[in-house]
């Protein structure tokens, strides 16, 4: 059985319902980490077969202290060829770390009005 680590980037309330649904649905060993609330300590001690980075109400342009620390850690994991899936904020974080330009969407259909 593969071990997958979930990185919950929520800044207000944890994505626990999503994690529990994944745990119930998939036959995988899952762990959950919340760097916005508890720092990187638990993440750096985990050694999973893959990572899933959830979304966040923060944006990489906010440049919160945990953003850079997480980005550098994930960049190292990718260099070690550890499979990593970034969802919304997760893919922004990785793209930003590798030099992409990330910007907020503005307009009537955006939550960043």
List keywords for this structure.
38% helix; 4 strands; 113 residues; 5 helices; globular; alpha/beta
How would you sum up this structure, described in words?
- This protein has helices spanning 16-25, 35-38, 41-45, 65-79, 89-97; strands at residues 3-7, 29-33, 50-53, 84-86.
- α4 (65-79) packs across α5 (89-97).
- It contains five helices and four strands; from the N terminus they run βαβααβαβα.
- It starts with a strand and ends in a 16-residue tail after the last helix.
- The mean pLDDT is 90.
- A four-stranded parallel beta sheet has the order 2-1-3-4, sandwiched between helices.
- Helices cover 38% and strands 15% of the residues.
Over all CA atoms, what is the radius of gyration? 14 Å
Average pLDDT confidence is 90
The largest sheet has its strands arranged as 2-1-3-4
Q: How many strand segments? A: 4
Runs with pLDDT <50, length 5+?
Answer: none
The termini sit apart by 44 Å
Helix content: 25-40%
* Tally of individual helices: 5
Strand proportion, as a percent range, falls in 15-25%
The SS-based structural class is: alpha/beta
Please outline the major beta sheet: 4 strands, parallel
Shape: globular
What order do the SSEs take from the amino end to the carboxyl end, as H and E? EHEHHEHEH
């Amino acid at each position: 059985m593969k071990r997958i680590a979930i990185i919950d980037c929520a800044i207000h309330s944890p994505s626990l319902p999503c994690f529990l649904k994944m745990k119930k649905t998939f036959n995988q060993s899952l762990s959950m980490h919340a760097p916005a609330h508890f720092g990187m300590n638990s993440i750096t001690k985990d050694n999973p077969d893959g990572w899933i980075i959830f979304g966040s109400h923060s944006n990489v342009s906010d440049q919160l202290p945990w953003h850079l620390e997480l980005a550098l850690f994930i960049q190292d994991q990718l260099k070690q060829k550890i499979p990593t899936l970034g969802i919304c904020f997760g893919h922004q974080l990785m793209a930003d770390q590798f030099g992409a330009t990330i910007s907020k969407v503005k307009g009537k259909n955006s939550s960043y009005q």
